[in-house]
Specification:
67% of the residues lie in helices and 0% in strands. The chain has 82 residues and is mainly alpha-helical. It starts with 10 loop residues before the first helix and ends with a helix. The model has no long low-confidence stretch (mean pLDDT 94).
Length: 82
């Protein structure tokens, strides 16, 4: 069910919405606002995933020194054997 929400844009926000519609990017201000909300939702989900990955890295133990050349050689050998 769709719920109506009253939104009164500030002058600069109205100018932005009008420009987005006039440029042909969106059918209406409502479509532009919906796209903005979807972008915020997607951005929030990505931030949450990054936070989880950072937390996992922080909890994974002490850092280990790696010889980059040797590690790259190991990965290349493994990829040839697959």
């Amino acid at each position: 069910m769709t719920q109506s929400i009253k939104f009164t844009p500030k002058p600069n926000e109205k100018e932005l919405l009008d420009g987005l519609v006039q440029s042909g990017g969106y059918k209406s201000s409502q479509h532009a606002l919906s796209a903005g909300l979807e972008a915020l939702n997607s951005h929030g989900a990505k931030l949450q995933r990054l936070r989880e990955m950072i937390r996992a890295g922080d909890n994974s133990g002490a850092a280990v020194e790696v010889d980059r050349k040797k590690r790259l050689e190991e990965l290349r050998r493994k990829s040839r054997n697959v």
